[in-house]
């Protein structure tokens, strides 16, 4: 039996890399499409580089090469984000929205005909709440991605392709672990305001995405799953009381 093929957009570091590792542990063939080179060696993971800001016109050619080498896909996961400082509005929309739309449309007929088929898009609590440290463009694209998930869930359902979103707030990644673990005051703050008493980690996100791509989630589609330990369930007054 051939390995399932999982394609991850934006999986060369951070949450994306953790997701890639989680699928590789289950012996999926993992293709990662990203701007940066892969920071780890793994026999199940191959990396394909593409700048979605300046070379988005080449996305179809790169996707064809990935499918030709690793076969049709079972899962398609989006974690990419624009992190530059030039033309933030235009480039955030291009990287997060336009590229997601183009990639999905290019791959609709490239999913494996057998077994479960899933698309998962990384969202954010900023799709409905305001994160002051993030630009307007970030909030707009995350909100739009939620509606894109619902649209494709309805339109791809007849093809057996499920589409869901995973949203989080602050996440401890491998690159930021040292900062968070050394900041006792910040740890104490998150412990107070989070019903589950700790911060979200990249493994929490990876586990949720893996579940949504598994047969255990075979009747779940069009949903936005908040992975935040319950923070977003609370009223502002309740949070303020905890900080006294």
Structural notes for this entry:
The structure is a single chain. The protein is of the alpha/beta class and 244 residues long. It has a single domain, classed as Rossmann fold, CATH 3.40.50.720. Helices cover 41% and strands 16% of the residues. It contains eight helices and nine strands. The chain has helices spanning 14-25, 59-70, 88-107, 136-156, 177-182, 184-193, 202-212, 236-242, and strands at residues 5-9, 29-34, 45-49, 75-78, 117-122, 161-167, 171-172, 200-201, 224-226. It has a seven-stranded parallel β-sheet, sandwiched between helices. A two-stranded parallel ribbon has the order 7-8. β5 (117-122), α4 (136-156) and β6 (161-167) form a beta-alpha-beta unit. α1 (14-25) packs across α7 and α3 (88-107) runs parallel beside α4 (136-156). It is globular and about 60 Å long. The termini are far apart.
């Amino acid at each position: 039996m051939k390995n399932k093929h999982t394609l991850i957009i934006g999986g060369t570091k951070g949450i994306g890399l953790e997701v890639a590792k989680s699928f590789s542990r289950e012996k999926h063939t993992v293709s990662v499409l990203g701007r940066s080179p892969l920071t780890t060696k793994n026999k199940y993971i191959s990396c394909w580089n593409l700048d979605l800001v300046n070379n988005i016109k080449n996305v179809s050619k790169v996707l064809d090469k990935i499918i030709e080498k690793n076969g049709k896909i079972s899962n398609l996961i989006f974690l990419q984000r624009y992190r530059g400082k030039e033309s933030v509005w235009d480039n955030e929309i291009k990287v997060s929205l336009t590229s997601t739309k183009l990639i999905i449309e290019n791959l609709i007929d490239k999913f494996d005909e057998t077994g479960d088929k899933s698309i998962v898009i990384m969202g954010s609590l900023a799709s409905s709440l305001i994160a002051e440290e993030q630009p307007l463009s970030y909030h707009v694209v995350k909100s739009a991605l939620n509606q894109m998930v619902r649209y494709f869930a309805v339109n791809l359902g007849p093809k057996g392709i499920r589409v869901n979103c995973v949203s989080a707030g602050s996440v401890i990644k491998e690159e930021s672990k040292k900062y968070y673990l050394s900041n006792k005051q910040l740890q104490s703050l998150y412990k107070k305001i989070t019903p589950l008493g700790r911060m979200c980690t990249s493994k929490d996100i990876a586990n949720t995405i893996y579940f949504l791509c598994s047969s255990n989630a075979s009747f779940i589609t069009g949903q936005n799953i908040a992975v935040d330990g319950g923070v977003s369930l609370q009223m502002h007054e309740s949070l303020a009381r905890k900080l006294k």
